[in-house]
Amino acid sequence: MGNIYRKKIASLFSKPWPYWFGGFMLGVLNIGMFCFTDEPIRVSTGFLYFLGGILEKLGIPVFDMYYFSTRDVQSLRSSFMLNRYVIIMFGIIFGSLISTFLSSDYKFKKIKNNKQVLFGILGGILMGYGTRVAYGCNLGAYLSAIPSYSLHGWVFGLAMFAGAYIGSKLLTKYIL
Q1: Predicted pLDDT of residue 100
Q2: How far apart are CA 83 and CA 53, in angstroms?
Q3: Of 57, 72, 136, 164, whose CB has the highest number of CB atoms within 10 Å?
């Protein structure tokens, strides 16, 4: 009897789920987040607070910078690991990792050249800067903004798709 359940569970994760289900679940999670915290999902804020907390512990006064002047800096200094944005960030990272392992879709890839590493680091820095300028990543500034009837979500979406198109063209021409 237990073997039958194991096979059914394994079959759930052996092939991709439909996109509509992923969109539906993202919507349900966003509504749940909004109901419990009065704020939409924010992931990039968790990265900012986590890194800022680590730098503060190392003696670099990051939370004294102008960006944090409107935030509750004392609570960030004392418990940056217990901040809801950091918890959401780790939840998304570990949830993605678990789902990847369950689908048997995880594999290490060899880095082709040093240019790939350099552009990966540069792209990460630019994306991190962009999330602060655009008030969030594709979850907070796009998927949470549009259902909240915010115009900036539509502007962000157009810029995001244009940037993805241009970036993919540059990537295939110069790096891959």
Answers
A1: 78
A2: 10
A3: 136
